[in-house]
């Protein structure tokens, strides 16, 4: 901890750390407000704000230890990626997602790695492969935010699945290449074998740990020992525990965090403890937004110093600052070209082998879909967090080309965001989209089925009551059934003569509504199990029911 504090800004003390945390958190919130006013992608705005904080006006200087940076930001970001990945779509588009996250990453690492080393021989070959690896992950959240929900659903799901998987494969490749740079030896054959071993080991450790946490939760719930707040705190620590255990065992902590998130998402969707789901969801959405924003702010804080050092080094090297900017543009063009060629070839082969596939939004011009998917390959927080984790030193000497690597990665991130912000809305104009209307129809149909399940349960409950039950109880049941059928949100005020009876009826109504919501939730799980609705639709509808139940309680 002492080393961590000393790395922040010279002679640091507790107040400096608190001020830094406060300013970064405040800046993340302010950046979101400014993004509604200034027509710039949010990550670029956050980088600019970081540069402003590093200017002489504010004089903030931050230099995080790379290992601390990796441990602090990577596990929770990847854990949440694994948590929210749409499982059905991941299965349906598994072939393309696997190709994009494994084969495309491998092609990118090899082709771009050799190209970077040829372009800038001052960056060692292993370090060039590391930079190419960390440039391979894409950021689906940025793309979806730019598209504002107008992307075809199948493409949105593919981008989310690809982003989650190539985050992991890109980071694992990056860590292996960095290790090779540290030891001075690099072999593609040995790296491939090591990749498979550490990947499988990481997946097993993360999945097993998350499964164990889920089993403990079930055991505690069965014995009334379960506390939502304690469980949520445990889940907050889970990605760090999965990462640390895997790394300590010599396996991939990155894939361990992803596997823990994927397994835990299944536990989270179990029909128990609505309050836990609401609390979990709210905290993780807040943390994901905050951590992404802090990563870009930290780049902005360090970027002026990086540019200054690169500028100083350019006097003794064969390149100038303008040349480096040109190299970044060429590098971005190469990444786009590789992505375009790979996607086009994949879809061309797929349509030749499976000609009859014309499902929904996939029945679009191949060239247009390929171009849109290519410009949607935006780089984001994972690329940034990875490159900032490059070690400062090797055997006491400065890591060769570290500042160049960070400069090029930052430039590619900014260029990809600009290309996405301009290209995605432009190419979307040429797509014939009916996804939003179709999605709304499917949601409406699922709501109707769930509501009918609630009505059926209420009618069965009403019939099961003895005939000598007080009439007001029957009227309560009838009113609830009527409200479901009419899709009403509120009930008419009751007029009862006796306050006690009114209170009892109110309690009965609340209990029946909660049990009817539980019937809806079970029906939605059945619909998902039978694949009538997808994972995202299930999460949307479960969220609605959770808030409705919370309001009743």
UniProtKB/TrEMBL annotation:
* One Pfam family recorded for the sequence: Na_H_Exchanger
The UniProt entry, under InterPro entries, shows: Cation/H_exchanger_CPA1, Cation/H_exchanger_CPA1_bac, Cation/H_exchanger_TM, Na+/solute_symporter_sf
Keywords, comma-separated and alphabetical: Antiport, Cell inner membrane, Cell membrane, Ion transport, Membrane, Sodium, Sodium transport, Transmembrane, Transmembrane helix, Transport
- Membrane-crossing residue ranges in chain numbering: 17-35, 42-62, 68-85, 97-120, 126-147, 168-189, 195-213, 225-245, 289-307, 319-345, 366-394, 406-428
Q: How does it sit in the membrane?
A: Multi-pass membrane protein
Main location as per UniProt? membrane
Q: For the Cation/H+ exchanger transmembrane domain, which residue ranges apply?
A: 30-428
**Where is this chain's protein located in or outside the cell?**
Cell inner membrane; Cell membrane
Keyword match NAD:
no
Q: Does the keyword Transmembrane helix apply?
A: yes
Q: Which family does it belong to?
A: Belongs to the monovalent cation:proton antiporter 1 (CPA1) transporter (TC 2.A.36) family.
Summary of the function given for this chain in its UniProt record: Na(+)/H(+) antiporter that extrudes sodium in exchange for external protons.
**Record protein name field:** Na+/H+ antiporter
Which taxonomic lineage is given here? Bacteria, Pseudomonadati, Pseudomonadota, Gammaproteobacteria, Oceanospirillales
């Amino acid at each position: 901890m002492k080393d961590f504090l000393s790395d922040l800004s010279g002679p640091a003390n507790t107040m400096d750390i608190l001020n830094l945390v406060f300013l970064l958190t405040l800046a993340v919130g302010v950046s979101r407000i400014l993004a509604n006013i200034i027509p710039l992608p949010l990550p670029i705005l956050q980088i600019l704000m970081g540069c402003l904080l590093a200017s002489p006006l504010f004089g903030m200087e931050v230099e995080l230890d790379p290992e601390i940076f990796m441990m602090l930001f990577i596990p929770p970001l990847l854990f949440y990626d694994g948590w929210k990945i749409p499982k059905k779509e991941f299965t349906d588009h598994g072939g393309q997602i696997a190709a994009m996250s494994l084969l495309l990453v491998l092609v990118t690492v090899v082709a771009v790695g050799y190209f970077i080393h040829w372009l800038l021989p001052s960056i060692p070959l292993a370090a060039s492969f590391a930079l190419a690896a960390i440039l391979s992950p894409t950021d689906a959240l940025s793309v979806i935010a730019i598209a504002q929900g107008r992307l075809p659903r199948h493409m949105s799901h593919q981008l989310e699945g690809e982003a989650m998987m190539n985050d992991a494969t890109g980071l694992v490749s990056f860590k292996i290449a960095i290790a090779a740079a540290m030891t001075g030896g690099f072999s593609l054959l040995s790296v491939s074998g090591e990749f498979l071993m550490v990947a499988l080991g990481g997946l097993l450790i993360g999945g097993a740990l998350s499964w164990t946490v889920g089993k403990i939760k079930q055991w505690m719930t069965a014995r009334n020992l379960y506390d939502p707040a304690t469980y949520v705190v445990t889940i907050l620590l889970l990605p760090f525990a999965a990462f640390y255990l895997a790394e300590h065992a010599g396996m991939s902590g990155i894939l361990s965090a992803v596997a823990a998130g994927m397994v835990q998402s299944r536990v989270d969707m179990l029909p128990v403890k609505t309050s836990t789901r609401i609390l979990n969801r709210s905290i993780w959405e807040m943390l994901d937004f905050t951590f992404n924003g802090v990563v870009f702010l930290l780049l902005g804080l360090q970027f002026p110093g990086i540019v200054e050092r690169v500028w100083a080094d350019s006097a003794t090297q064969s390149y100038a600052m303008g040349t480096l900017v040109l190299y970044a543009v060429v590098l971005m063009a190469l990444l786009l070209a590789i992505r375009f060629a790979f996607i086009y070839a994949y879809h061309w082969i797929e349509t030749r082998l499976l000609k009859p596939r014309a499902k929904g939004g996939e029945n679009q011009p191949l060239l247009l879909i390929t171009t849109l998917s290519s410009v949607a390959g935006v780089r984001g927080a994972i690329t940034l967090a990875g490159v900032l984790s490059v070690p400062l030193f090797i055997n006491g000497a400065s890591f060769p080309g570290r500042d160049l690597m960070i400069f090029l990665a930052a430039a590619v991130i900014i260029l990809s965001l600009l290309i996405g912000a301009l290209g995605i809305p432009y190419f979307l104009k040429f797509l014939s989209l009916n996804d939003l209307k179709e999605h709304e129809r499917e949601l409406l149909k699922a709501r109707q089925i769930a509501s009918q399940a609630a009505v059926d349960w209420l009618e069965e409950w009403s019939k099961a009551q003895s005939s000598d039950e007080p009439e007001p109880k029957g009227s309560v049941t009838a009113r609830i059934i009527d409200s479901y059928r009419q899709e009403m949100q509120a009930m008419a005020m009751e007029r009862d003569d006796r306050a006690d009876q009114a209170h009892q009826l109110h309690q009965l109504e609340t209990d029946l509504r909660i049990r009817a919501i539980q019937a809806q939730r079970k029906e939605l799980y059945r619909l998902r199990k039978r694949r009538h609705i997808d994972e995202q639709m299930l999460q949307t509808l479960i969220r609605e029911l959770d808030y409705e139940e919370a309001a009743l309680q």
